[in-house]
Write a structure and sequence with these properties.
Distance between the termini: 15 Å
Structural class: mainly alpha
Number of strands: 0
Helix content: 55-70%
Length: 80
């Protein structure tokens, strides 16, 4: 499942749980599914951040660093 589909599913789960229309058993199943999706999305975002860090390099091929010596990063904007 793509990041975008996972995120959309998380939104659907949140809406259903928040609406109060789901039974307790269904809410528990939805919560478990949401936990797995959150972990998956978190992993994908971490991987994307690491890739972006390796791509943000200066002309000498070294990783561009900020003043505090942490890697320079760029905002990740998923395509819709």
């Amino acid at each position: 499942m793509t990041f975008e589909k996972s995120f959309t599913r998380l939104e659907e789960i949140l809406e259903k749980i928040s609406s109060g229309k789901a039974s307790l058993d269904e809410s528990l199943k939805l919560y478990e599914e949401a936990e797995k999706l959150i972990a998956s999305c978190g992993t994908r975002l971490q991987e994307a951040e690491e890739k972006i860090e390796t791509l943000v390099k200066n002309r000498e091929g070294k990783l561009a660093l900020k003043a505090d010596q942490t890697p320079e990063t760029a905002n990740f904007q998923p395509q819709e």
